[in-house]
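Minimal example, chain plus zinc ion.
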Amino acid sequence: MRLKELESYLDLLLDVSHFRDYCPNGLQVEGRSEIGTIISGVTASFELLQAAIEENADAVLVHHGYFWRGENECLIGMKRRRIALLITHDVSLFAYHLPLDAHPEMGNNSQLGHRLGFVETDRFGEQNIAVHGSLSQVVTLRELGVLLERILSRRPLVIGDEAKPIRRVAWCTGAAQDYFDEAIRMGVDVFITGEISEKNVHAARESGVAFISAGHHATERYGVQALGEHVAQKFGITHQFIDVDNPV
Ligand SMILES: [Zn+2]
């Protein structure tokens, strides 16, 4: 398929024009005009790009791309090496940040909730990215931690009374620990996100609402995979997800 065709399809599907974000969403680096193979990954690190080029990628699709607000804009050091690798091999980079967290079907939050068997009730937080809902059956906090470890292949950090029954849940993938106060106000039993701050531990202890930090990378593996699979099936191109491990 044509690069331009893929670009307009993804931008429309993810509704990018309706998001205020900290980075540009969409085609960030332009490569060759025909696309037959897409490699997806969480972050456009040098290691992911190298692995993608080895797999003959025409385009790389990620959640964490480049050109973040506040960073040095100059193409020097790590940034030059990454972008030079893409341009030398004529490979495109597509990055979708908040639009990929939020998408009702292929988004990180929907995909994570689906894998954990959560039933979505509503959205909250900035631009309605975070989700609250319920568990399909009541479990203890300890059992929920075990489920997360099994699904994500990573042991989560669980703050709260392990015997506590969990019915209502709020979640947001990535570094969404600042939504914890809002989750507490909504009266959920647990809040799940990717990262945790020191103050969240005290807020969990004092509110009685449990906090689970399940990994930024681990919680954000699924949106980009679902999106890659979707375009591969729709347009008859090849897609592969490459997981470059990250302990955070
Ligand atoms: Zn993220």
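The longest helix spans residues 222-235. The pocket of zinc ion is lined by residues 63-64, 174, 216, 220 (CB under 6 Å).
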